[in-house]
């Protein structure tokens, strides 16, 4: 029988709002879960969103098998096997490296890594806001321990491949160091004390639950159109200081300059994704990759007073879309709603990739070596959106 233990929340977190977010799992060997144990873990995942396991021994093959158990028909890494390695333009190329014998599992980390699982030598870079944001923290403040969120997202190619259902992230080697202070730098004065190089998580359910009625009505009627090859499309663009979306500076690559693409492979997804375990709605939009927004009109008989885009809309202006999305997502990354995981060697984090968004955090020096194994698999189906009953309820 597995044991589920409440997460050790930081002092900044609201224990009431996060009382049902995350559970540490004890009492199982992840390399060989029994059918009954897997069913319990799966149920806990969809209920709690993130499940850390401590002191885990896991081979590449076992990690792939564990991830695949949540979607047995899934075969390839979320961005396609070896495709990021082969891309010269994707912003992900410096961050991940496929393992030769299990290409569905990726090496992510920082510093010089030698002779690891069939990779002779590699020097991945921990994602740092200074390479992606429009503005940067000064070197002086960085030396004092100030940093930022990198990029809030769910793991997904958002072109050709369906978003993975789950991600497993295994901390083989975790650098030691003092906490850093994340600055939002958006005029609010918000800050968050976080462990060095943490991964921060927030609940898409909570993000939806705290919206105003007008924004809930908009969310339940909206679909996001993602750019083709979005991580190439955004390669010259620069992010906002919260890591929650791109600044509207016109730096996105024109579609004519992207690698060959097909309209049939573009992804159009509901703004809200339905949890398969709880049937709750989660606000799940990748704020950096969205290119257009489709809004359905209000259902017949709905009240139009105060409604946004009551007659429906097809928004193509990136600034309008991003400002609207920021208004919807920014409350959900408030310091009290964030779980920043305090990584230890051999931690494994299993998270519901269609129910939470997350970000890399912090700044590491070249000598702070970090070795993580990441696995997520392009799903065998697309996320389910709101039902007719959901639309009627929230409009």
UniProtKB/TrEMBL annotation:
It comes from the Eukaryota. Residues 21-374 form the TauD/TfdA-like domain. Its cofactor is Fe(2+). Keywords: Dioxygenase, Iron, Metal-binding, Oxidoreductase. SUPFAM superfamilies: Clavaminate synthase-like. InterPro entries: TauD-like_sf, TauD/TfdA-like, TfdA_dioxygenase. The keyword Isomerase does not apply. GO terms for molecular function: dioxygenase activity; metal ion binding. Pfam families: TauD. Belongs to the TfdA dioxygenase family. This is TauD/TfdA-like domain-containing protein. The lineage of its organism: Eukaryota, Fungi, Dikarya, Basidiomycota, Agaricomycotina.
């Amino acid at each position: 029988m597995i044991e589920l233990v409440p997460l050790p929340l930081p002092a900044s977190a609201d224990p009431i709002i996060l009382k049902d977010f995350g559970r540490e799992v004890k009492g199982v060997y992840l390399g060989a879960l029994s059918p009954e144990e897997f069913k319990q873990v799966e149920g806990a995942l969809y209920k709690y969103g993130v499940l850390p396991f401590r002191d885990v021994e896991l081979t590449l093959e076992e990690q792939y098998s564990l991830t695949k158990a949540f979607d047995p028909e899934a075969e390839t890494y979320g961005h396609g096997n070896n495709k990021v390695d082969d891309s010269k333009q994707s912003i992900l190329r410096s961050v991940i490296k496929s393992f030769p014998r299990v290409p569905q599992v990726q090496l992510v980390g920082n510093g010089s890594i030698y002779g690891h699982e069939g990779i002779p030598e590699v020097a991945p870079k921990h994602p740092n806001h200074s390479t992606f944001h429009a503005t940067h923290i000064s070197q002086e403040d960085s030396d004092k321990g100030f940093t930022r969120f990198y990029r809030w997202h769910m793991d997904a190619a958002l072109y050709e491949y369906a978003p993975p259902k789950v991600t497993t992230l295994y901390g083989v080697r975790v650098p030691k160091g003092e906490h850093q202070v994340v600055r939002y730098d958006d005029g609010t004065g918000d800050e968050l004390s976080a462990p060095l190089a943490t991964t921060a998580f927030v609940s898409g359910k909570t993000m939806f639950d705290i919206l105003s009625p007008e924004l809930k009505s908009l969310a339940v009627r909206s679909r996001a159109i993602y750019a083709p090859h979005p991580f190439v499309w955004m390669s010259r663009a620069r992010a906002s200081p919260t890591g929650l979306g791109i600044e509207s500076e016109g730096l996105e690559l024109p579609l004519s300059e992207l690698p060959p693409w097909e309209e049939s492979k573009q992804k159009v997804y509901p703004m809200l994704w339905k949890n398969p375990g709880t049937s709750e709605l989660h606000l799940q939009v990748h704020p950096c990759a969205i290119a257009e927004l489709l809004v359905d009109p209000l259902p017949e008989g709905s009240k139009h007073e105060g409604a946004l885009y009551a007659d429906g809309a097809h928004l193509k202006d990136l600034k309008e879309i991003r400002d609207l999305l920021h208004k919807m997502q920014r409350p959900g990354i408030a310091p009290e709603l964030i779980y920043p995981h305090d990584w230890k060697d051999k931690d494994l984090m299993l998270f519901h990739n269609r129910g939470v968004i997350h970000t890399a955090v912090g700044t590491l020096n070249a000598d702070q070596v970090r070795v993580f194994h990441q696995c997520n698999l392009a799903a065998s189906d697309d996320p389910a959106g709101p039902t007719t009953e959901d639309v009627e309820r929230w409009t």
